[in-house]
Amino acid sequence: MWRRSPSFILDERRTSSSPPMADTTRAPFQNPDSISAYYQTRAAHHGVITSEWLSQAQAAVGGVSGDEHPISSLTDLGDGKSFNVIEEFNSWRKQPDLAEAVAAIRALAAVIRASEATTMMELEIELKKASDTLKSWDKTSISLTAGCDLFIRYVTRTSALEYEDFNSAKSRLLERAEKFGEISCKARRIIAMLSQDFIFDGCTILVHGLSRVVLEILKTAAQNNKLFRVLCTEGRPDGTGVLLSSELSKLDIPVKLLLDSAVAYSMDEVDMVFVGADGVVESGGIINMMGTYQIALVAHSMNKPVYVAAESYKFARLYPLDQKDMAPALRPIEFGIKIPTKVEVERSARDYTPPQYLTLLFTDLGVLSPSVVSDELIQLYL
Amino acid sequence: MESRRNPRAVVDPKVRQVGFFTSSQPDSSSSQLQQPDPISASASSPPVSTISPSGNSLSPVMIPPPRHNSSDAFPLRNAVVASAVSPSSFSYSSRRDFPDGSTTASPGRHSRGSFVKSSVPVASSLPGIGMDSMAAAKSSSVPASGLTTVSVVTMPPGLSEKASGMEVESDHKKNSKPLKEKTTKAERRAIQEAQRAAKAAAKVDGGKGPAVTSASVASTSAKAARPAKPTSQKNDVAVAAGAAEKKGGPSEKDRKKDAPHPRMQYDDESRVVKAKRRAVVKQTEAKNRVELFRHLPQYEHGTQLPDLETKFFQLDPMHPAVYKVGLQYLSGDISGGNARCIAMLHAFQEVVKDYSTPPEKNLNRDMTAKISSYVSFLIECRPLSISMGNAIRFVKNRIAKLPITLSESEAKAALQSDIERFINDKIIGADTVIVKHAVSKIRDGDVLLTYGSPTAVEMVLLHAHELRKKFRVLVVDSRPKLEGQLLLRRLIKRGINCTYTHINAISYIMHEVTKVFLGASSVLSNGTVYSRVGTACVAMVASAFRVPVLVCCEAYKFHERVQLDSICSNELGDPNAISKVHGREDINYLDGLTNNANLQFLNLMYDATPSDYISMIITDYGMVPPTSVPVIVREYQKEHLLV
């Protein structure tokens, strides 16, 4: 933004009162309302991540979760008027093993089930409305938006719907919705299987952030008796790396905790970098927890592969040109000491890693190179 | 070694040296240079067979010409040079018409027509490089000349035969000299007959006779061609008149039969000859053609228009709407990819409207042929852009897919509405979608740079301004077109804060830019952006400064071709545009040098920007990375068939 050229003074004067930076001057904890809901959810999930969570996740992968949670929409069927997507969504969201997007997909499937529409058009409009409400519930979450969009595309884009009567069409829709939910649920398992070929004995893996997919990958690798070592970044400010390292130590995987700033220092001994993603954007780049970009840069300059594990419901129709080109997701940062009010704090929670710094993406569609993401997206949305 | 370091001028730009030459004769080439008159030097420079310069005197960047050309290309080219230099108003192309003899309706016409045709394939089939190939060419061209002499003999005596005989004779002269012992009896006889015919013709001509005969005896072929020039002009007059009377220009059937490939290689002499014969627009070849770009048409500018205007009533097969558009292309009244494409499609709509199927013909086939002939006319006026090629493909596809059951009026209505839909959906509609996408990338406080005058970007900027986004525009421009000034005028009228600079200042001004918006003539499937010359420079500087480069391009301009450089396919503009500055007589340092053989002007129209320098391509299918162009091309073409 601030360039060297003197003629830019013109613009600076014009934009000096622009809001983006203004609110960050306030102390981070005085406005908890500005904290991204997405990160609230994540914080809640991190609170419960334990071994028992893992077993629960295991159960979820086995498809048990659908049974053990009495499907609330069934009860809602009776009083359809009071059906609320958000409530439905929140009830799904409480399951720590379920990603936000999968919860949204389940909630939308429930919308179809509860719908009293009598025509296809009506149903589609209803679905659209529900997904809009979900999306507006948390605008900063990429996977939520992407998951809703993909669900709508996947469910409604079938030509067979036009030739059938409404009830069978609806049941077909429901079928597709269930299938999509199931695919999304199994995605993690598929990714874990796909990535096994890339982990070899004796390798050292650098992990950044607490990604459930990455955890699944590492866990599967450990179960397959692979011998490898993990370096975890600390993951300031919410200490995601600390959580992940404790999980890994429970699995008897040798793990080492690093400062976020020690990445370049220890990159020499690293064989590959594994990160998750909040969202995969159209260029093939990823949006992920703050720090991913610099790790990718360091890895790229040292010729280490950077692997991204992301479910396909995180593919978003976004195309950020640079770091500032996305809606910022803000989060509180605890520095331990009081920060003078005049000091600005960068509270952005995520950054954008351009595709040229990524090696491969592990998705449930297969192992993709970054440029294929856009191809998949085009074919999906065209 | 030594010759490689020589300046390019040492290599005679008129003569293409082929392959590897064993014996180097540096003095022969230097003596050429020393000749005071560059024209006579080039004209009198013997063809490759005698000069045989060393192989490494080839400029490292020079493209070796197609091998099969080696035999007959050089005498022709020398003749071209001579004719272009002579003060006559008759152009190369009119001379070209002549050996066909198509209009004289003489009995020898047929075999004469085969002169050009027969010699080429024979030569091309022969292997051999350098001296070998020359020898091969000789042996191959001798039968050809034999063929022609037969025609000379059978033809009624007249001016035209004499001239042609002279050409033939001079042709074979230089060929036969070094290997007399190899020629067969029949060939020798043919040669003799040709010489006799030439002499007789020279006598008829009177004063020029001695020169011609001496030429035929001793001097090189090029010299022979020069004295022959005035006579052949006369012939041309007669021939042209006869042509106008009998046929009224090249027949439509002839035109449609072999319409020139849109990317014809203009250094392929035989193809050029064929194309010339059909050409409606008489283009004068530029004198000093740029070596690296010989495969592109290089014409004198500004000469065709009056000629074409006078011929308006002779061209009955041409639809007036197409004619009008062609003239507008030629004069530069319509420029810009979208404008040209829309104008062409509107002309085609007119064509469809006025069309009536001739008796005993099929609408689908006849109309396709008609469109093809119109397209070849448009190509003659100005090379097609890729977008136009795509549009033409669409139109032809629609014609071919017309159900046979439709009546003529129904078919015409369907076609017209299809073309209308193409314009509305693929061009105008696409632009609105692009604007919608692109505006989402403009933020308050942005400094946007644009180059030239891309219509899509202009719409983006205006719309962003309507949305009250606060941004500043840097319009970068370049000589000679200065299109940016038009854009600047329109932007300022709307109250947008603008800065105007020339491309020379790009590295200074790039500091303050936050985004670069560029237009494109075409996007190729490796992500290369083919656009106004200078775009690559802007994109590279921007990416060096880590400024995102956004390219706005409608998807109908995408093409599945792959291009790695700006050389293979390009368009050359008027060399005078870069040699002269209008209104500045004090700085016209190049006055009087434009005909210098050592000076070549290169006015490129387009360049190719590699995909590495492009952050995003904004199309009607959304914002995609340059790596995804093939997907769009694939999907689009599928849809293309369905539309």
Automatic annotation (TrEMBL), chain B:
Signal peptide boundaries: none
UniProt GO molecular function? translation initiation factor activity
Quick one: where's region Disordered?
1-73, 86-118, 158-188, 218-274
Query: Which UniProt keyword terms apply here?
Result: Cytoplasm, Initiation factor, Protein biosynthesis
Q: Which Pfam families match?
A: IF-2B
**Where do Low complexity bias regions lie?**
23-54
Q: Where is the composition biased (Basic and acidic residues)?
A: 1-15, 169-188, 244-272
State the compartments where it is located. Cytoplasm, Cytosol
> Where is it found, in Gene Ontology cellular component terms?
cytosol
Question: Subunit structure, per the record?
Answer: Component of the translation initiation factor 2B (eIF2B) complex which is a heterodecamer of two sets of five different subunits: alpha, beta, gamma, delta and epsilon. Subunits alpha, beta and delta comprise a regulatory subcomplex and subunits epsilon and gamma comprise a catalytic subcomplex. Within the complex, the hexameric regulatory complex resides at the center, with the two heterodimeric catalytic subcomplexes bound on opposite sides.
The family annotation for this protein states: Belongs to the eIF-2B alpha/beta/delta subunits family.
Protein name in the entry:
Translation initiation factor eIF2B subunit delta
- UniProt organism field: Capsella rubella
